[in-house]
Amino acid sequence: MLYGLDMPIVFEAAAGIVGLILILLLVYIIILNRRVKNLDEKYVFFMQDETGKSIESKLREDVAELRGLQGALDMIHNTQKDILSVQNHCFRKIGFVKYNAFDNIGNNLSFAFTVLDGKNDGFCLSSVYGRNESRIFAKPIVDGKCLYGMSEEEKESLENALIYQGDIQAVQKE
Predict the structure, then answer these.
(1) Distance between CA atoms of 140 and 123, rounded to whole angstroms?
(2) What would the pLDDT profile of 82-92 be if each residue is shown by its tens digit?
(3) Residue 173 pLDDT
(4) Where are the beta strands (DSSP E) in the chain?
(5) How far apart are CA 159 and CA 95, in angstroms?
(6) What is the pLDDT of residue 145?
(7) What are the residues facing 135 on neighbouring strands?
(8) N- to C-terminal Cα distance for the chain?
(9) How many folded domains does the chain comprise?
(10) Is 125:97 a contact under the CB 8 Å cutoff?
(11) Residue 102: DSSP 8-state
(12) Most-buried pick from 86, 92, 112, 134 (CB within 10 A)?
């Protein structure tokens, strides 16, 4: 006997306390195991899309598709550059003025019509209408300037064509 204590009873009490602690730990482990299982189910559910595939594989597919689209986008930009370079040689700026060439004739039957390409090259076509006859004149335009004398109406038509806002801008590549 140690200090008046019965040793078998102390061992039994200590074993009972240790056993109780082990049972409590076992219960706690079971509770934690259930929580981990619930979290795992939620994680698996969250990481799947509507078809059941994992988000990781879906992201992998999307990245591969985006890389393919980048190549197509580069091809579109190159094609657009080619089209714009061709369009610089096509008529795309227009100026038009109607007027009365003579005082005694109404209805603005005379006109000046200017057509320019992207480099401001083109022609000015003018028609002067009279009661007995009508004349048509064509004058070349080079770099926005006419090499021949122009009437006020032809100059106005040329200015209208030069400030024409129907030009096409390239989409900027980012």
Answers:
(1) 4
(2) 888 787 788 88
(3) 46
(4) 93-99, 110-116, 122-129, 134-142, 145-146
(5) 7
(6) 93
(7) 128
(8) 90
(9) 2
(10) no
(11) S
(12) 112
Alpha-carbon distance 7 to 13, whole Å?
10
Q: Residue 25: what are its φ and ψ, rounded to 5°?
A: -65, -40
Nearest-angstrom CA–CA distance, 127 and 157: 12
Task: Give me the domain span that covers residue 141.
Answer: 93-162
CA distance linking residue 128 with residue 111, whole number of Å: 7
Task: Give the integer Cα–Cα distance in Å for 139 and 90.
Answer: 18
pTM for the predicted model, two decimal places? 0.51
Check residue 166 and give its pLDDT. Answer: 66
Closest CA to 154 of 108, 83, 99, 85: 99
Would you say residue 119 lies in a domain? Answer: yes
- The single residue listed with the structure tokens 């032809």 is 154
Residue-level pLDDT at 132: 83
Question: What confidence tens digit (pLDDT) does each residue in 108-125 have?
Answer: 888 999 999 888 899 999
Within 8 A by CB and 6+ apart from 173, the residues are 77
Token pair 């080079």 is at which residue? 142
How far apart CA 105 and CA 111 sit, in angstroms, is: 13
4 domain residue, yes or no: no
Edge-to-edge strand ranges of the sheet holding 145-146: 93-99, 110-116, 122-129, 134-142, 145-146
Low-confidence ranges of the chain (pLDDT < 50): 170-174
